[in-house]
Amino acid sequence: MTKTYTARLIAPLAALPVASACTDYLDVNDNPNGPQSVSANLYLPPMLHWMVTSPQFDGRFVGHYAQEWYSTAITTSPASTWGKMGYDPGSDNGAQQWRDVYWSLGQNLIDMNTKAEAEERWDLLGVGMILKAWGWQVLTDLHGEIIIREAIDQTRTKFDYDPQDYAYQEVQRLLDSAIVLLKRTDGAVDAAYLGIGDKIYNGDRARWLKLAAGMLALSLNHLSNKASYDPDRVIRLVDSSFTGNSDDPLLAYPCTSTDFADCNFWGRTRNNVTAYRQTQFIVGLMNGTQFGGAVDPRMSRMLTLDSANTTYRGLDVNQSGFGGLTITQQPRNFFGYTSTNGLGLPSRYIFADRSRLPVMTYAELQFVKAEAALRSGNAALARTAYLNGISSHIDFVNARNLEAGQTPPQITAAEKAAFLADTNIVPATVTRSHIMSQKYIALWGWGHNELWMDMRRYQYTNLDPVSGGQVFRGFIAPTTLYADNVGKVVQRIRPRYNSEYVWNRAALDAIGGLDTDFHTDTLWITKP
After folding, report:
1. How far apart are CA 409 and CA 300, in angstroms?
2. Closest listed residue to residue 249, CA positions, set 282, 286, 221, 218
């Protein structure tokens, strides 16, 4: 069962009538245990937590769309719904980021930014702009039309949706503003003050500036199907962003709370992915099937063997549960154990209770640069960035397998060199198929939002203009899709059920949100 908690920092206090002669201890305004106002930097920790963690909540479902994994559950969601590119009617499944953007951040983020601006704390305000941009970015990429102009307006009971092109304009405006603010050194800019609440970069304004540039590069690269796409600007922004894995924004999970809320969402203690298994798609990308026989050294550090401990197998998304696999053929869970075992035992890769998870990575941005360079006609630059992406992700895998008592051995320098020298992996001229398939591997398990956006940008099965093969090598949509799809692949997640379909139906109706196949409507961002 998923264990959630509310990270809201400020809660309204009920006003109780008291006699005029009440004693001091009844004066809530002076109660240090119930403050009505806090320092601006203290708003930050729970919001940073959700920026990294809520994509993992929704990744349970998005990961089925992108075939990162498949649930072995037979009669319950997600295997029977999300695994068939559908959804759960009357449920908030797939809407954690919706909840956290509008509520966990919501008014808290507005209050933090208002205080930061009033106090001329430009570094904190810059981080606040990044958080706001992140929220609109992930929501519009998941859901399409979202509420922006009327959001967090407590005078309203109905909230109209804004089109996706406006959402993208707003994301880019906010990130441009963040970059300007994070370059300022005047006013009350103070690394020590920011660092009190900054659990990712410890107040390092320069690294937040790099993150803003990287987020903007990612956003602009999503415009690849538009005439306005500017690959050269994307490349410049990537070059202004991370310079290596040391810049990766990683959130630590101490896993000391008795309710386990501060444990890694994917860890065995949280029990959120115990029934999930790797798919044939991800295994095929790494076992040599899709890359000319070149076996990826990361496979034995990221994926798991079958229960007999002999072969890497993945689940068939057209089957229920383990399909036709015998007990010994069934893949182990992501912690490295059979069945539901692994509680309290050493784990693997990003699936340990204390594994750190990123917002984005240097490797991810190098693949973005490689795609942009290839689209701009600079094949040499594309190959260099592509090499950097694979190399740095190998280092990322090694780092994650060191930090929380995981069991896989390190990928050696010799293994890494041999893999990068294999022309099946790194030919003289790389193609989109090379870049996007290797980017998929680098994002597998944590970068669900970007993975799914990439797949929709390439309509899941588009062909590479050079090789003629699929851009995402080996990807096959389920042959039997969810009934409401009417034979169409999924393009979006419906807005959060309990806030929108219960309370905001008129606004939903205006964008077609009441149609049973609304989740198959193509997003503006993926259209020409």
Report:
1. 9
2. 218
Closest CA to 400 of 516, 501, 300, 301: 301
Closest CA to 498 of 135, 1, 95, 105: 95
Residue listed under structure tokens 């004693």: 23
pLDDT in tens, 159-209: 999 999 999 999 999 999 999 999 999 999 999 999 999 999 999 999 999
How many Å apart are CA 220 and CA 231, to the nearest integer? 8
Q: Report which DSSP code applies to 288.
A: S
In sequence order, the β-bridge partners of residue 71 are 276
CB 430 within 8 A of CB 382: yes
Task: Give the residues across from 477 on adjacent strands.
Answer: none
| pLDDT tens-digit map of 395-433 | 999 999 999 999 999 999 999 999 999 999 999 999 999
Q: What's the distance, CA 425 to chain centroid?
A: 26
Bond prior to 495 in cis (omega within 30° of 0): no
At 224, list the tokens. 């690849």
Give SS3 for 256: coil
| C-alpha dist (Å) from residue 524 to 5, 99, 471, 515 | 34, 23, 21, 18
Residue corresponding to tokens 């010994």: 328
Residue 69 in tokens: 């994994």
Structure tokens at 301: 């550090």
More confident residue, 8 or 397: 397
- Residue (of 299, 337, 331) closest to 316 by Cα position: 331
At residue 75 the predicted structure's pLDDT band, cuts being 50, 70 and 90, is confident
| Conformation bin of residue 228: beta by default, left when phi > 0, alpha when psi is -120 to 50 | alpha
